[in-house]
C-alpha cells in the first residue's frame, strides 16, 4: 500500500502523457484548431 501512495504522482503523469500521445497520433490537435478558429470567427461575426 505504501508503494502505491508513493508512486501515484508518477503513475498519473505517465497516464496523462500516454493520453496526450494518443491524442496527437489521432490528429486531434488539427480538429481542435479547426473548431477554435470557427468559434473565434463566429464571435467576431465573420463566420
Structural class: mainly alpha
Largest sheet: none
Number of helices: 2
Give the fraction of residues assigned to helices: over 70%
Q: Summarize the helix and strand pattern as letters.
A: HH
- What is the mean pLDDT? 88
pLDDT < 50 stretches: none
What does this entry look like structurally?
The protein has 47 residues and is mainly α. The chain has one domain (2-43). It has helices at 2-25, 28-43. The protein is elongated and about 55 Å long. It starts with a helix and ends with a helix. The mean pLDDT is 88.
Compose a concise summary of this entry.
This protein is 85% helix and 0% strand. The chain is built from 2 helices and no strands. The termini are far apart.
Please tag this protein with its features.
47 residues; mainly alpha; 2 helices; 85% helix; 0% strand
Topology, pairings included?
Layout: H1 2-25, H2 28-43
Amino acid at each position: 500500500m505504501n508503494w502505491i501512495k508513493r508512486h501515484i504522482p508518477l503513475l498519473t503523469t505517465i497516464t496523462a502523457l500516454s493520453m496526450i500521445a494518443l491524442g496527437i497520433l489521432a490528429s486531434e490537435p488539427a480538429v481542435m484548431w479547426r473548431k477554435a478558429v470557427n468559434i473565434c470567427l463566429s464571435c467576431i461575426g465573420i463566420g
